[in-house]
Amino acid sequence: MSVVDGQHPKLFKRYLSKDICAETIIIVNKIQKGFMFKYWDSKLSDPVWRQEKVKLEKLTPFLQYEEDKYRSILVERKLAV
Questions:
Q1: What is the reported pTM?
Q2: Which whole-number Å values give the CA distances from 28 to 5, 31, 33, in the listed order?
Q3: What is the C-alpha to C-alpha distance for residues 71 and 51, in angstroms, rounded to an integer?
Q4: Nearest to residue 24, comparing CAs of 8, 38, 10?
């Protein structure tokens, strides 16, 4: 999820290439209490991120998921605390 030299992080690249869906990005961000989007905002200045972030934020209120289940998956994979 790190941004190196202003390049898109791997997770975002996978989303752009449709390897993962928007819901995955949103769940990771929500479980991390919005940290991921805030971090990417501070490190990325390109229009692709800005446009996709707007789409993801619009979808966020409609997404329902089992937080405990996904939190344990992310903890298992060392992506969340």
A1: 0.86
A2: 22, 5, 9
A3: 27
A4: 10
Q: Residue 78 burial by CB count (10 A; 0-12/13-18/19+): exposed, middle or buried?
A: exposed
N residues, the chain: 81
12: left (phi over 0), alpha (psi -120 to 50) or beta: alpha
CA angle 35, 17, 41 (to 5 degrees): 25
Among 6, 4, 9, 75, CA closest to 46: 6
Question: Tens of pLDDT along 37-63?
Answer: 999 999 999 999 999 999 999 999 999
